[in-house]
Amino acid sequence: MDNNKIGKFIAVLRKKKGLTQKELGDKLFVTDKAVSKWERGLSLPDIAILEKLALELDTDIYHILQIEKKNDIDVEKIIREERLKMKKQVNRKILIICFLLFLFVGFILFKFVSFGYQVYPIRYTHNTNKLIHFGVPKYSFWFQNVEDSYSFKSFRGSSVLKHEMRNYLNTLDKLSCNHTSYYYDSLADITFVDYQVQGNLFYHTLTYSVRNGNYCNTLQVEEYTNKLGSISAPKNLYAEDSLLHIYLDPSLKVKDHVNEWTIVLYVYYQTQLIEESKGTFEINGNELTYYRTTISKQDEELDIPTISNFIIKDQKLILEDNYLDQYEKSIILK
Predict the structure, then answer these.
(1) According to the model, what pLDDT value does residue 72 have?
(2) pLDDT at residue 61, as a whole number
(3) Are 226 and 313 within 8 A, CB to CB?
(4) Dist. CA 212–CA 190, nearest whole Å
(5) Residue 92: CA atoms inside 13 Å, Cβ hemisphere, count?
(6) What is the pLDDT of residue 87?
(7) Does the pLDDT of residue 32 top 60, yes or no?
(8) CA–CA separation, 316 vs 330, rounded Å?
(9) Where is the domain boundary, 42, 76, 109?
(10) Which of 116, 165, 258, 320, CA to CA, is 20 to 30 A from 271?
(11) pLDDT band for position 324 (50/70/90)?
């Protein structure tokens, strides 16, 4: 039987009788929604209702069901079989909908739920050769490397990928310089200077940018070199016909992956050593501050401060609060 044809036939007969779905339903003691389902081929009336339906529409069961009238036809069996077939069809649709819903929910979970990251060892070969590690969000693929840039692909969502990369970076030490924070792996002696996730609806590219060593150290060396010139070159008194001779020798040591800037200072008047000291220094803006930690030689008439400040100008050092003014009014080291 064709349920759609049966439904259309019922609708034609109902309209011929001038009845609405509600009016026909009232006569049969069913709702208009039940009548609507019959006419759309979504269900069939019960055998008891079917007989009354045929009576109200001035026809018989066989015409409604569009089957040939025979003595040995079991109408109830036919209806039962049709209902079973319709139930199977409905169950099949429900299974398909559930399967599609399962796929959709799985897709959403895969895209937007965090699964954590895995730590991958990778060879870092740009200007060196050593083993470093990356926290890569799970289910990433297609690794690529160009110099200091390492990237991966992923089908997962941008926000969750950033979250997992950030979780890994937060396990590392933090560096702050130039008003920026970086992530430092002290075991591998490498700095993550940037991370980003870029892509489109289908996949994203995860990128780590790294630098060998402590990146803040590197930036500091660049800054100090730009302001002082060569770090290994001593600074001497810039004055003609002066009886005062000054040798300020800056140097750099790296201790526990951190820059340590030191100075050794010798001051002679004629041939007499009137100061020999050493200590550390730092540069802030255009000022160099020298912190004396040891004064091994000091003239009795000389009051040597523990801290001396120099103005930096054109890679020259101009001494503020000149404690040597009895020997030279202006101390400029070049």
Answers:
(1) 56
(2) 82
(3) no
(4) 5
(5) 6
(6) 76
(7) yes
(8) 13
(9) 109
(10) 320
(11) very high
